[in-house]
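Minutes, project check-in
Item: structure for the 481-residue chain
Input as provided by the requester:
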Amino acid sequence: MKVSVETLPTSEAVVNVDFSWEELEKASDKAYRKLVQEIDIQGFRRGKAPRSILERKIGKEYIYQEGLDKLMTETYRDVLKEHKIVPLTQPELDAPILAMGQPYHFSIKVPILPPVELGDYRSLHFERQEADVTSEEVEKELNSLRERQAQWEVVERPAQIGDRVTVDLKLTAEDQTVSDLKDNPFELTDERHGLFSGMDEQIAGMVVGESKTFSATIPEDYANEKLAGKASSYEITLHKVEFKSLPEFDDAFASAASKEEYASLEDMRKGLSDQILEGKKRKIREDLREQVLNAVVDQAELTIHPVLIDEEAHEMKHQMTHLLEQQRMSMDQYLMLVKKTEAEYEESLKPEAEKRVRQQLVLDEFIKKEEIHVSPEEVESLFRFYAQMGQNLPQTEAQVRNVASSLQREKAISRLIELTTDPDPDEVQGLPEVVGEASEEELVVEEIVAESSVAEETVSEESDEGVGVLVSGEEVEKAAE
């Protein structure tokens, strides 16, 4: 037997095999001994019929082909093991018809996990950014909390920008009704974009019970190209005007807005400052992780077979389907809203899918090179951490493997950051080891959650384009699109 293995630049392996006729003869003997145990032949007990009798019953070529098939399967399995080849899908087989008395050649081409050549990642260096908080940022957050504590009070006066109004609204263009709303609330603003831009200034000054008609132009960037830039006509009747009453900035506000977490306004300012600072530090850590990982990936050399990208895109689509189900929407409905076919949607996922695959392959190679391991105790600790967070994950074999893999990836990224940056000045020294482990566990949980959040971000981005997914009640112009 002659076997050769060639690894192609396309992340495929080609296996060429030559069998001598003597090897095929031996394989056919094995096939005969197996078949004679399975086939009933009149006049002979099961397994006792001579080969010549069996050949007359099922054909000589059939026995040889059975032996050849078995020999090919065993050879392919042995080649994978010997050459440490990881096939991604079923192989493509080039197997000619067996010619009796002649040696036999066949070849197999199979997509494989690509070899990864890491760059000199130890030569990389990144500076850690410092986080600080300004008083303006704290006041902005305070004002945001104040806005959320606002009360709407009905007033008997003309509507003003900043008020909330309830109206009947009919919008037509090109003899077509674009929107027909009843008792619909709008918070008047001078910064409205989209379908109803320019409407607010016309409502300002109206009084309850008043009706008004006016002309406008649908924005050029409106999603419906047939209506974009066209003249439109409004019919509006005002039913209610409400004024936004904001609470005073005092200790009572601090207590109410924080659900009694803070007793005074100064305590709240200090607490908000700490929260903003922690948020900035978290963002800096996330950006640093992404920066380091991208740099290591950019250094690496590898060729990814399309099948890996297709599988990752399929998994991303699966995640999106679950997210949509949580919003009581089917994938078909979503595709209709984003105006894409299933094939077009899957194609749009491939750039991100390729990025994920590339990062994972590079991390896997880094894990091998740096000999990064995860112990059963660490995995068990992570499951306990999940439980403390109210997520009692079933410890199935697949779930344990998934958690261990996530933890190993997190340890790898932590190691990369350790190699390419100066020590984090915020890290507390001398604390028990379990504290460091808890921090790492939090990062693992964040990573797993982040995998699903990519799909959520995709939905939100589509919404911003006017698709109508995840829209609020007041964003009816998007639904109209």
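Outcome recorded: The longest strand covers residues 231-245.
No further action items on this chain.
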